[in-house]
Amino acid sequence: MALRPVNVNIKALDEEAVGRFWAAALGWELSSEAPGVANVEPGGEYVWPDPAALVVDVVRVPEPKSATKNRAHLDLATTSLAHQAELVERLRDLGATPADVGQGDDVPWVVLADPEGNEFCVLEPREVYRDTGPIAAVVVDCVDPRAMARFWAGATEWALGEVTDQQASLRSPTGLGLYLEFLRRPEGKAVPDRVHLDLLPYRGDDTAAEVARLRDLGAVEIDLGQGDDVPWRCLSDPDGHEFCVLRAPSAAG
Question: Where do the Glyoxalase-like domain residues begin and end (predicted)?
Answer without folding.
Answer: 8-123, 137-246
